[in-house]
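Researcher: I'd like a candidate sequence for this fold, 330 residues long. If you have to choose between options at a position, lean toward the conservative one.
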C-alpha cells in the first residue's frame, strides 16, 4: 500500500513539474497586425475569443493604416504575425525582411463601383473617367492587365484619375465628381451603404456594385475566377513551429466563423475599427471570396500572380519572384 501511495505521489509531482514547465513556456504576448480589410477579420475574432491562450498570456491586435506602417511593423521586431497583401509580403521578403508567408485567405475583393448599372465588363467603361487608388500598386496593375487582355490601352481608352487611397475615391463618387471607381472590399460596401444613408443620400448619386474583377480575371486569363490577394505572414523568427502551427489552426477556425456569421462578424469588427460600419462589414463578407490555403499549396497561383505583377512593375514584388524560403513549411 505504501509503495502504491509513493508511486502515485511521485507521478503527481512529475505531472505537476511537466505542467509547470509547459506553463512557463507560454509567451507573455503575441501581437497581430492588419489593415482595415477583410484579411484582418479573423485576427479580431482570435483576440475576442483569446484563441491562443494555450501559448500566450496576452493576444493583441494592432491596425496598420498604410504601407509605410506595414514596413515598419515588419522590420521593428514588435509584431509576430501580420496580415498583408501577398505582393507586399513578397516585396518585404525580397528586401531582406525575415518574413515567411503562412497562407492565402483572401481571393476576391476587387470591384468596379459605378453610377451606371448597365456596365458588365471593363470594356464597357471605355472612354470613361475612373477613380483609381494607389497608382502602380496591385489593383491598378490588375486593371491594366485585364484591360489589355480585351484589346484596350488603359492610358488611351480610359481617363484614369489616380487618388491617394480608397477613401478619396469614395469621396469623389459621393460628391459626383467621378462616375466610376475601382475599390476593394470593405470600401465597396461602405460606399454603397453610405450613399443610401441620411444625410449623405441627399447629395450622393445612386451607386452600384459593377464589374467583379475576379470574374474578369477568370474569363480573360482562362483561370479560376480568384486572385491570391492577401494572407498572413509570420515575422518573428524566434517563434517555434508549435506556436506558428497553433496560429494557423486558430486563424482558419476564425476565418470560417466570420464567413458563417457575417452579421456578428460585422458588429465585432466595427467595435474594434471605428471607421467601419457593421452593416458594410457584413455585406462585404457575404460577397468576398475567402478560402484558407496554406502558402505552399497556393504557390502555383501566387507565382502566376507575381509573374504578372513583375512583368509590369518589378518593384511591386521586390524585383524578383521570392525563393523557396518565402513559403512557410513546418
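Model: Candidate sequence:
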Amino acid at each position: 500500500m505504501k509503495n502504491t501511495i509513493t508511486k502515485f505521489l511521485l507521478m503527481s509531482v512529475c505531472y505537476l513539474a511537466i505542467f509547470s514547465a509547459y506553463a512557463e513556456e507560454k509567451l507573455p504576448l503575441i501581437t497581430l497586425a492588419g489593415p482595415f480589410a477583410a484579411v484582418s477579420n479573423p485576427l479580431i475574432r482570435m483576440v475576442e475569443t483569446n484563441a491562443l491562450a494555450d501559448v500566450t498570456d496576452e493576444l493583441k491586435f494592432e491596425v496598420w493604416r498604410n504601407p509605410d506602417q506595414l514596413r515598419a511593423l515588419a522590420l521593428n521586431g514588435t509584431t509576430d504575425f501580420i496580415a498583408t497583401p501577398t505582393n507586399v509580403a513578397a516585396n518585404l521578403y525580397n528586401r531582406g525582411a525575415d518574413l515567411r508567408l503562412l497562407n492565402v485567405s483572401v481571393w476576391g475583393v476587387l470591384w468596379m463601383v459605378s453610377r451606371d448599372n448597365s456596365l458588365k465588363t471593363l470594356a464597357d467603361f471605355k472612354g470613361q473617367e475612373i477613380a483609381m487608388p494607389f497608382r502602380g500598386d496591385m489593383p491598378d496593375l490588375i486593371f491594366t492587365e485585364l484591360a489589355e487582355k480585351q484589346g484596350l490601352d488603359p492610358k488611351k481608352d480610359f481617363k484614369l484619375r489616380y487618388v491617394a487611397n480608397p477613401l478619396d475615391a469614395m469621396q469623389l463618387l459621393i460628391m459626383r465628381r467621378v462616375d466610376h471607381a475601382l475599390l476593394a472590399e470593405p470600401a465597396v460596401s461602405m460606399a454603397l451603404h453610405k450613399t443610401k444613408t441620411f444625410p449623405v443620400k441627399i447629395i450622393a448619386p445612386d451607386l452600384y456594385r459593377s464589374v467583379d474583377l475576379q470574374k474578369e480575371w477568370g474569363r480573360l486569363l482562362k483561370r479560376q475566377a480568384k486572385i491570391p490577394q492577401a494572407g498572413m505572414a509570420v515575422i518573428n523568427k524566434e517563434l517555434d513551429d508549435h506556436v506558428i502551427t497553433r496560429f494557423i489552426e486558430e486563424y482558419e477556425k476564425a476565418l470560417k466563423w466570420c464567413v458563417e456569421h457575417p452579421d456578428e462578424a460585422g458588429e465585432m469588427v466595427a467595435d474594434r475599427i471605428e471607421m467601419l460600419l457593421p452593416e458594410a462589414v457584413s455585406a462585404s463578407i457575404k460577397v468576398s471570396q475567402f478560402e484558407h490555403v496554406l502558402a505552399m499549396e497556393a504557390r502555383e497561383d501566387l507565382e502566376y500572380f507575381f509573374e504578372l505583377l513583375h512583368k509590369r512593375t518589378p518593384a511591386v514584388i521586390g524585383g524578383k519572384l521570392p525563393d523557396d524560403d518565402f513559403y512557410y513549411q513546418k
